[in-house]
Amino acid sequence: MRRSGSGYEAAGQLTIKGHAQPVTLPFTLSIDGDHARMSGHLTISRRDFEIGVHSDANDMISQNITVNVRVDATRAP
Question: Residue 7: which CATH number?
Fold first, then answer.
């Protein structure tokens, strides 16, 4: 994880249906007292994870998928 502009970036490996790809997730982090919220999104290619590539509708569906991530956390007492 590192700072990037007004937010952060987390680099890692995303595995879907047994197919792994390196990804970088840009996100924002806000902390208010004991509460924290992380929110970010990235775009992946269906082909990289073989999602729907064997479907008859493959050519009619966008190759790019947006993955939205949001985590709300509260500090334990």
Answer: 2.40.128.110
- Residue identified by tokens 């064997």 is 54
Domain enclosing residue 6, as ranges:
2-74
**Angle value at C-alpha 36, between 30 and 38, nearest 5 degrees:** 65
Q: Are 10 and 1 in contact (CB under 8 A)?
A: yes
Cβ atoms within 10 Å, residue 31: 11
pLDDT recorded at residue 67: 95
What global pTM score does this model have?
A: 0.80
| Percent of the chain with pLDDT strictly greater than 90 | 71
20, amino acid identity: A
